[in-house]
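B., you asked whether I could sanity-check this one before it goes into the benchmark set. Here's the sequence:
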Amino acid sequence: MAISNAEISNALAEYLARYPEEAAPLAEPVQRLRQGGAFTSRHTFPMHVTVGALLVRSETEVLLIEHRAYGLLLQPGGHVEPTDTTLVDAAVRELSEETGLDAAAVFLADPVPAYVEYGRVPARPEKGEPDHYHLDLGFAFSTDRADVGQIQEAEVAAAAWYPLADAERLVGHRIARAVSRPAHAG
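And here's what the prediction gave me:
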């Protein structure tokens, strides 16, 4: 079963219950969700949902990728696919696809997103995409033994583990949120 707008709205509501100070910057996507639409389709404009995965290894480092299209260091993530059944499953799939990491070695740290960001994406005429917005829901995961495998070279230029302080400096406050969550071993 595909991811529903209700699941997206519930994840966003849980996030805002934990971080009420972020209600104002997320008011527009909340309103769009109330109006309805196929937000898990990358062809829904002006907004669709993406997912991210903040993976912490041994409580000392975070996995980041160099995103080929954006030329930035980011957490792994991307568009939701029609075969994804939950937002968390979509985040794990993106993590595994982009980094070659074994999904079985990854554990969800918290079912509430560690971050939610609403950001503008510039037009990409070559892909038939106008200016639009991503509502990116990122989840925290932990591992003790996972390592980078074969990266998805079409989208990722590199993937590597970064010490927590470096990752937070490069990517921002979401790193601290991922680290502060206790891991659930299954």
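One thing to flag: Strands lie at 47-57, 61-67, 72-74, 77-79, 107-108, 115-121, 132-143, 156-163. Otherwise nothing jumped out at me.
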